[in-house]
Design brief:
Blueprint lengths: L2 H19 L4 H29 L6 E5 L5 E4 L8 H13 L2 H12 L13 H16 L4 H13 L2 E2 L4 E2 L10 E3 L6 H9 L4 H17 L10 E4 L6 E5 L11 H18 L2 H14 L25 H15 L4 H18 L34 H15 L2
Helix pairs in contact: 2-3, 2-13, 3-4, 3-5, 3-13, 5-6, 5-7, 6-7, 7-8, 7-9, 9-10, 9-11, 11-12, 11-13
The protein binds glycine (GLY).
The site of glycine (GLY) has 4 residues, from loops.
Length: about 400
């Protein structure tokens, strides 16, 4: 072989091995995940259409996969109904492909009656994932009255004696408040920003303070459900809820806390909210496994021989990315490094669905309600939603 041919061969092999070993950049990872999401969500839409055709009537939303392997759908009132249209909004935002905007609007339309719903707290999730993103991305002013009406409906659930909005009307409890409810405060803050009454912001701040005081343990882990006496504002009983026990740290509960306190700080600039968000992050980070994806409950006795919860990692990564903007350089770098580990794991073959797999959901291996043996190690719409949100947050840093 001639010398210059040998040199060419050597250079080609060197270039090839460099490209094989180079770590995918976060920009490349984001492009790959959004390309997969764009393909998967068309599959999911076709699957949902088939269910809707067979059951004409109320709009149908994806939920998960049943134990028998069939697609699990829900009606518009289920707390997760906003996540698939919300994910479609993120795909539209990333790709600028009008097809995804049309799909987002198609699923969002069925949620509009929720603006007047007063018998549940989760209209915050449902309306902010949809109308909130719609307003942010397209500036469509028709979203404003929906958001303000929704916030006024949610505010009817506030009890000044307890200092919280009530989560559910379930007769098993007197006045239940769950940590997840912190997420619904974003609807109140946003509606206030859009011209709603001061009371919306005041309710949100009071709810956050009450939760900070009562839901958290000494070690800054959070409980899931507190049942209050509305006459006195005292706690009647603590429930383990979706966690292993009332003394354990349910992973998704921790993730709602890590996401929501930086969000409250964003709207209030109250240093106590930031301090608490940091405390929550510092509780969570040392308890994560190497790949950053938490087991379903930090204290479940079978861990590490137990299921994980990809949704908790997706939500935590959103929280860590937001928090990284408000803290000193050392913490910021540390929080982003943890978020990056989570996002790289979620984008790996282990968690990311292959094209056409799992009915068109994006992520595998989430856990909804382990102790009830419901939604264990399955896709969940909110895992997909917060994963895409985290990647957009990363991109916008
Ligand atoms: N209760 C809402 C959740 O599963 O996180």
């Amino acid at each position: 072989m001639k010398l210059n041919m040998k040199i060419c061969l050597f250079l080609a092999v060197a270039a090839l091995s460099a490209s094989c070993c180079r770590q995918e950049s976060m920009e490349e990872l984001t492009a790959r995940v959004f390309e997969r999401a764009a393909a998967q969500f068309l599959v999911l839409d076709a699957n949902i259409d088939s269910v809707a055709l067979a059951n004409p009537g109320e709009p149908v939303y994806p939920r998960s996969i049943n134990d028998d392997g069939t697609l699990w759908t829900s009606g518009y009132k289920w707390w997760c109904s906003g996540f698939y249209p919300g994910s479609l909004w993120y795909v539209y935002e990333y790709t600028a492909d009008e097809k995804y905007k049309d799909l987002a609007l198609k699923y969002q339309a069925g949620l509009e009656p929720l603006r007047y719903r007063t018998d549940d707290h989760d209209i915050g999730f449902q309306l902010m994932c949809t109308y909130g993103n719609n307003l942010r991305i397209t500036k469509d002013s028709l979203c404003v009255p929906v958001i303000v009406d929704g916030a006024n409906s949610l505010a009817t659930r506030f009890d000044p004696e307890v200092g919280c909005t009530r989560s559910w009307d379930n007769k098993k409890y007197t006045f239940p408040v769950i940590i997840d409810n912190m997420m619904n405060l974003e609807l109140l803050f946003k509606a206030f920003e859009l011209g709603g009454p001061d009371s919306l912001k005041n309710i949100a701040v009071t709810h956050a303070y009450t939760t900070m005081k009562n839901h958290f343990r000494e070690d800054n882990s959070t409980r899931h459900i507190l049942d209050y006496d509305p006459e006195t504002g005292e706690i009647i009983k603590v429930y383990g809820g979706q966690g292993y026990s009332e003394d354990s740290a349910w992973a998704r509960g921790q993730s709602w806390a890590l996401y929501s306190f930086p969000m409250v700080y964003r709207f209030t600039q109250d240093p106590k909210m930031l301090e608490h968000a940091i405390a929550v992050a510092e509780y969570i980070i040392p308890r994560l496994p190497e790949d950053g994806i938490p087991y379903w409950d930090f204290d479940a006795p079978e861990v590490p021989n137990d299921v994980k919860d990809a949704s908790a990692a997706a939500i935590m990564s959103c929280g860590l990315i937001e928090l990284s903007k408000y803290v000193d350089a050392e913490k910021s770098a540390r929080y982003l490094a943890v978020a990056e580990t989570m996002l790289r794991s979620l984008a790996s073959e282990e968690y990311l669905a292959a094209e056409g797999e799992v009915y068109g959901f994006l992520l595998k291996h989430s856990t909804g309600h382990r102790t009830k043996n419901s939604e264990v190690d399955v896709p969940l719409t909110y895992a997909d939603y917060y994963f895409l949100e985290a990647l957009m947050r990363w991109r916008n840093l």
